[in-house]
Structure formats: C-alpha cells, structure tokens
C-alpha cells in the first residue's frame, strides 16, 4: 500500500507513516477517532488524481481532509488520510470581486479578507470561519448564521473543478464541460440523466426533496441537484456540494460573492425561557433582522466566565433565560436607521426581560459575536474533565422550533443528560445541542442510542432534517434511509456507485446500513495537563500557528500528548516511547511559544504555556544553573553577545559559518544559534544619565538592543525614541542598572523558572524604585518585552503601569511633533505580542503618519523568530514567513517596519528587506521634514 501511495506523489516524504504523524493527524473536531495507516500531503491536483487511482486499483480506502473542523466524523479514517489544506491555498478574485476562484485549503476568514477591499464577501458564514476551509464548506454545504438557504455554497457556486475517483478531472465551468463529461465518463453522464428522470417522474419523491431542501439540510446527498439542473455537468457540480468527500476531490471552485453590508447594529435580547425566545422569531424576521442566534441558559452561564464577554451577558442573573443575538445590516446609514425604527417598535412588545440595546460600535459587536462563534468550543471546554462532548445539529420548520426545544429539554431529563446546551441559528429553525459523557461503557452507549432514537423520532415527526449544516458523516449515516424513504435512499446508493464504483472514497460516510455505526469509534480524552485538558480539538488555533506547515499545530501537540497517555493506559509502552522520541522536536523545539493560539482559542488555551513547562521538565540541572547564573550577570551576557556579533561581522563568513555549524553539530541545534549573514553587528549599552527635566515616564529599553544592533547602521529604537521625545519636549528616565535588567521572557520561553524568578525580582525592584512606586508609567520599546514586563508585574501585583513605546508615542508624542515628511508606502509587520496586547491600532496609526499607504500582508502571521528560536531552528521562521514574505516582496514598499527587534530580524531574513522599528522610521521622517523646512 505504502509503495503505491509513494509512486503517486513526487516526493516519497509526502507519505508519512511515523506514529507521531498518524496520531497527530488522526483528530478532527468531531467526537470520533480513527488512527490512519498513512498520511499523504499532495502538492497538486494531479497528485490527488493519482492517489485516487491508486486507491481504487489497490482497494485502499482514502479520506480527504482540509481544515479538520468537521463535527460529524466525516474527516477521520483508519486507512489513508490525504491532507489537502497545506498546498491548496490560492485565491483569484474575478470580475472586480463579483466572483472568486478559490482552492480547498483557504479559510473562510482569509477569503473574506481578500474580498473585503471589493466590498464583497463569501456567502456561507459558519461560526468556525477562522479555521474552516472552503473545501470543507463545499463538501459539507456549510451555511452559518446569516446565509440561510439563499447564500450557501450550493446557491452561490458558479463552477467547480473536481477530480473524480477514476482520476478524471472535470471543470464544470468550461464551455464544453458537459461534452467532456460525456466523453470521459459516459456511464456517469448517462447515469445522472437516468436518475434525474427517475426522480422527476415520481411526484412523491419530488415533494419530499423539495420540502427537505427548503430548509437547511445536509442529510444524505443533495438530490435537489437532479431537479434544479438539466445538464449532467451542472448536476455533478452541485452534487459535489454536501458530498463530504465521497464523490471526488474539489480542486478549486468558483463562487458568486455577495455584498458586504457596510453598516450593522447588534443587540442581545433576553427572554424568560426558550419558548418565549422562539415565539419572538417571526416578528424579528419580518422586521428585517439579518441574523437571530439562539443561546440557552447554559450557554449564557458558560459565556459569563470568558474573557471579553460583554457586560450585557456578564450582568445577567441566569436561571432559565434564553437569549437571541440579533443583528440588522444595511448598505447605508440611512437604511440602517430605517430598520432601527421598525426594530424599536417591535422589540418593546416581544416580552424580553429587559430593554434591548443595539450597538453599532465595532468593538461591542465583535465581543458579542466572539461569544457566539466560540460557543461550541467554550461549552465543550466547560465539560467535566475526561468526558467527550458530542454536538448534534438539527433543523425543523421555524413554527415548530419552540416545541422542539421544549421536547429536547425533556429528552435530556429522561435520558439523564445534565447541563446539556441548546444554541443555534434560530432564524432558520436550525439548532445545535450538546451532550457530554464518556461514551465508553456499555450503559453509556445504550443511553446515547436510546436518546438518539427518541431525538430522531422528534425531529422527523416535525418534518425536519437530522442534519442541517454539519454534514451526515458517521453520526447520522444510519438514519438517512429513515429520513428519505427507500426510493430516495436507493437513488443515493446509485449515485455513490456511479461516482465511486470501487467504494474506496471515504467509505461509511453519508450512507451506512450498519444501525450502530454512530456508536462506534467514539474517542476518549485522557487527562494529560491542566493547561490543555479543556481542548475539544476544534482546530481554531491552527491557522494562526507559525509551525502549522512544518511540524505540529497546538491541536496536534495536545492530541499527541493524549495519544502518549492513552498508549500508557493501553499497556503499549513501545508506542508511547516512539511518540515521545519524535515529540521533542515536533512539538517542544519547534513551538514558537508566541501564544497566538490563545488569541484564537474560544476557551483561551495557551499551548505555549504547556510547551514552556515541558521545556522546564526536559532541561537538566546544569542548564538551569547556567540560566540562573545568567540572570545575575545579564549585563555581561548581553554585551558579550553583542561583541560576538561585532567580531562575526568583521570576519569572513567562510570562517564564521563552518565553526558555527560545527558547534551546532556537537552541542545540539536546540542549544547553539545558527549564524547567518543578514544578522547585524552588536548593539550598544542602554544606560543613560539622569534627565535634566522632569521625567514623564520611566523608559525600559529592551536588552535585545544591546545584543543586536540596528539595521543598516541606523540609530536604533532607543536613540530614535529619545530624539522623538526631545522634539516633543518630553523627558524620560532610564532606571539605574538597566544594562543588567530584563523582562524575563528569555527564561520564561525556555522554561527556566529559577532564572526567570531571579531576573524578574531584580527588574521589579528597580522599576518600583524608578517609578516611585508607580507614580510614573513604564515605557518599553519592544512589544514582546512589553508583554513580558506586564507578566512580571502582574505577578508582583504592585500596581505599576507598563505602556509599549508605540502606544506612548501615538498618545503622547505624535500630537506634539508637528508635520512629518511621509513616504509613499511602508510594509508593516505587526507582531504576535502587539496583537495580543491590542497594540496594532496604535502601530498602524504611527505607520499611517510616516507613509501615505500602510501595507500589511493578508497572509500575515507570527514570524516565529521568537527570541532565539529562529536562530536555533531557522526552518521554523522560513516556514512561518514563506507566504507573507512573497507578498511583502511584491509590495516593493519604500520602507519596512515592525515593533520588536527580533521580529525585524526574522522578517529581514525572510524578505531580504531591512526591517526597522516603526519609531526609527518616524524619527527619520520627522528629521527629513525638519531638514526640508531648513
């Protein structure tokens, strides 16, 4: 089998069979778990075609996966898993944004970011838009909160390029698509026409299909394609939508985009209970509400504990209430105001528990939507430790929604599922509900089976669908026949046979006659670490992870740790040892510990904290002592590092590089940094005499400025900030002994707890003295060090205030500077720390002063230089910056800037362009303007 797979791809390394590759990639976001026998990462659609041919010829079942956010088990397998995320991320905007061509590995968020400049957006709007990919959206016919059945993937699809299980490639957008399909796949072409006639000639079948697809519906295959279209090519294109990877590979798709409303108002309406919230829906929909998202009492309780939860939620005394998150949108302020008048007249009579306040403020609206979009993972994360969360997804006609929710609540009680949650897209009659249990013991599985039977009877009794937008998967495949009847089920079976005669493409998905298929392969979640035990494998963290294309993502780091523990529990020490052997590099050494995963995680898991602890546990006594000693001699260490770079800059590279590589080979690549020619010479001392004027702040210049000099022989950020403040008439005080002080981040990132504590104690004491116990704020000139200082002072709990230099300049210096000589363009690299600190608006504001156009790559992400991590493992930074570097080079910008010295080094290496601190550029442009005036 492995030989056949390797012969289908260009590089044998694209076929992965190590245990760590299999277990790390085994999980999607569902409650099912199967361990693949191989993972393949194809580079092109042609390679996927050859893999499909090998699958059919060898009888090797094959499953395609992109984002891995599916919830019904359609993206897990115990055979061959094909990753179509990594190398399929191209976007081509067509017709000035009216249409877009996109590959399956692009996330919905990335696609919408590209379309934003055209005032357009992608139709489907799933809550998982930050992580779910276009391939999965099409394969599942995902919809979301706003698009309903009018703007989903099925309705907005223009054409699709499909690789069929035979290897045949069909572009349904080609003028001769139908003729080519007839020539290349005559049986498929004729079969589609035959099944279409069979369906159309059966009035009862037509009525069933039309009713089912008048609602959101992802149960079974999209038989509406056989009614809605006349040519087999068009039928094929739309049958692929919702086919869950069972009919072919979606190599790319073209969509008609929709308008992005420029104005919106969002509010939370709280009702006494679920029934009264459901009763309010018809009036809200009639008033023009674009969305109406339901959250029950358990949802609200969980939301109250999350960081950033809006006050309107946090202030609730929750017992039995339910809420509707309602949004009105419009193309103009006048249109939104008109809707507001209708809304005001309506809301007063809806029976809410209090007045409803709608906000047009972007930050307020974003906090409400963050709560809703992260609800599944947040509620799952609040489950009892060691249990599994199972999410159902059903739809009923909207008039039946209230009584369906009431009956579901009774079913929870009957089957003893406590703290179950109901939420969803109420406007469409589409609700999600969650069960938590271990789903392992026979009694637990029997209880779940009995609940499912009762739930199926309830939903089908209301003429609903058992799957609205999450796909049939394994979860509901035994019930497709019951929902559609024998005749339509038979048509679906024939469709699968026409497309995939060998039955090797994602078998067991959508159609499965095993009545217990949904009870098999339910995953267990052993406890491994308190930092990450709440993880539900939603995958939201993966797009922001800088190591995602090199080694592991946060989700994979956690799941591999669980696999190690499960192997121990299963009595398989050999497997545990093999996983642990590779885990060190794949997880610990190549994690940037940038904590960007926490910004994306709905339950705020910081996998970097786990990795720091693992580094601490792996570090030997000698290494800990060395780093503790460095904390007491930091002036010597930093100045020594700077002198080494001074020498290296003067010595021929042919002398430095071989010696450096030998040291890395002998002492270890995770110990000795790699020298490279673009590194600058060393920096200068940070100490300064006491100011003559009254200081407005204590200035804490980062020690990285001593180790690494400025780009291109410039003044550096410390001198630049001092000059800017001097021009603004502001004085800064640099603490006594600054050359021996540090925020503690180098020790924290390496897990050196004793050295970190020693350094932070020195630094906090010095800052307390310099600020006169907090009378003055502290200004730091490197965003990661600002974040490190905030962490150190939070532990000290002494009320000292830290401000990043960019924010300080934006607030205090810019208003006093006068005119600036702007550049035409500047390429700007926000950092992971500036993002976590909420500093990016100030960073962009300063950049907007120094340049007429500020260019931030759409593919922006953490550069992963991460202190010295990019020198220890340059492959990490190379992988993390590959796409954004190409985008930056295409800008041909006049200058390049960031707000953290090591990130500037990383981006300089990646792009070949000299990155400087944004304050260096600002100082240069104010200097240029003064020279022009003279």
Largest beta-sheet details: 7 strands, antiparallel
Structural class by SSE content: alpha/beta
Rounded to an integer in angstroms, the radius of gyration calculated over CA atoms is 29 Å
Helix content: 40-55%
How many angstroms separate the termini?
76 Å
**Counted beta strands:** 26
Averaged pLDDT, please? 94
Secondary structure tally, helices: 41
Beta fraction of the residues?
Answer: 5-15%
Identify low-pLDDT runs: none
Question: Any idea what the shape is?
Answer: globular
Strand order of the largest sheet: 15-12-14-13-17-18-16
Detail the topology: elements first, then pairings.
Layout: H1 2-7, E1 15-16, H2 19-25, E2 38-40, H3 45-58, E3 62-65, E4 80-83, E5 91-94, E6 99-102, H4 108-116, E7 120-121, H5 134-140, H6 153-156, E8 157-163, E9 169-171, H7 177-184, H8 186-200, H9 203-212, H10 225-228, H11 232-240, E10 249-256, E11 258-259, E12 263-271, H12 274-279, H13 281-286, E13 291-295, H14 297-304, H15 311-314, E14 322-330, H16 333-347, E15 358-359, H17 362-373, H18 375-381, E16 388-395, H19 401-414, E17 421-425, E18 430-437, H20 442-461, H21 480-484, H22 486-499, H23 554-569, H24 573-589, H25 596-600, H26 607-618, H27 621-632, H28 634-650, H29 653-667, E19 695-700, H30 704-707, H31 716-727, E20 731-733, H32 745-750, H33 753-770, E21 778-780, H34 783-796, E22 802-804, H35 805-817, E23 823-828, H36 832-836, H37 840-850, E24 851-855, H38 869-872, H39 874-891, E25 895-898, H40 901-911, E26 915-917, H41 918-933
Parallel strand pairs: 2-4, 3-4, 19-20, 19-21, 21-22, 23-24, 23-25, 25-26
Antiparallel strand pairs: 1-2, 5-6, 6-10, 7-11, 8-9, 8-10, 12-14, 12-15, 13-14, 13-17, 16-18, 17-18
